[in-house]
Amino acid sequence: MAHPGQLGLQDAASPLMEELLHFHDYTLMVIILISIMVAYIMTTTVTAKVTNKLVLDSQEIEIVWTVLPAVVLVTIALPSLRLLYMMDEVNTPHMTVKAIGHQWYWTYEYTDFEDLEFDAYMIQTQDLTPGQFRLLEADHRVVVPSRCPVRVLVTAEDVLHSWALPALGVKADAVPGRLNQTSFVIQRPGIFYGQCSEICGANHSFMPIVVESTPLQHFEEWSVLMLDEA
Q1: Which residues contact 73 (CB under 8 A, 6 or more apart)?
Q2: Please, what are the domains in the chain?
Q3: What is the pTM of this model?
Q4: Name one GO biological process term (predicted).
Q5: Helices marked H in the chain — which ranges?
Q6: Taking burial as the number of CB atoms within 10 A of a residue's CB, which of 49, 66, 73, 120 is the most buried?
Q7: SS3 call for 33
């Protein structure tokens, strides 16, 4: 999760987020090199004492500042397009969870289990226990097995919402009457926090998303317990 004073992105918990972090670092280095080069050219131009007023154009310079930016854009665009296609791929998921956005809570349905459905509301500040995080904890967590491909179907009941988990590199719009999908593989057990990322009304910032990744055996025990309670 995010922490005070954080400058970078959250630590990756999925292969997709690792790729996004690598692309971020790669693009940042390209931007830094371009900024240094432009700053150097501007400095030398301003501080130059000799100018040639007879040169009106230069074919060599025109070619360089046309071809060089095009090459830079291509080197950024290719890995970017690769990532876009990776984010859209849903390959043989082991389970499917349906997330439905409401004003202002989430409803989750485990489509592979009959009658496994629950609502997830934010825990109010006065009800938090020691160790829980304000505005991020929900009374019911989405429990998924670690190292298993999980597909999430996202929709909304009333207005636009967005199901987002930064540590997993996942963000899908929840649109009424439309079913969007995304997928992730969580590499390690843990608890991961997100929030609705679409301004959906007065309590937009009070509908957190909490996903708990557990070993497969623990997930099976949890699912049996939840089905018994249902």
Answers
A1: none
A2: 15-88 (1.10.287.90), 95-229 (2.60.40.420)
A3: 0.83
A4: ATP synthesis coupled electron transport
A5: 15-47, 59-88, 216-229
A6: 120
A7: helix
The DSSP letter of residue 148 is S
Q: What is the DSSP letter of 95?
A: E
The radius of gyration of the chain from alpha carbons, rounded to an integer in Å, stands at 24
The span from the CA of 12 to the CA of 19, in Å, is 9
Place of tokens 């909304």: 156
Coil/strand/helix, residue 25 = helix
Q: Can you read off the two tokens belonging to residue 94?
A: 């082991």
Q: How many residues does the chain have?
A: 230
pLDDT tens per residue across span 97-145: 999 999 999 999 999 888 899 999 999 999 999 988 999 999 999 999 9
Q: With beta carbons less than 8 A apart as the criterion, state whether 223 and 191 touch.
A: no
Q: How far apart are CA 173 and CA 168, in angstroms?
A: 15
Label each residue of 101-130 as H, E or C.
EECCEEEEEECCCCCCEEEECECCHHHCCC
Token pair, residue 81, equals 């397009």
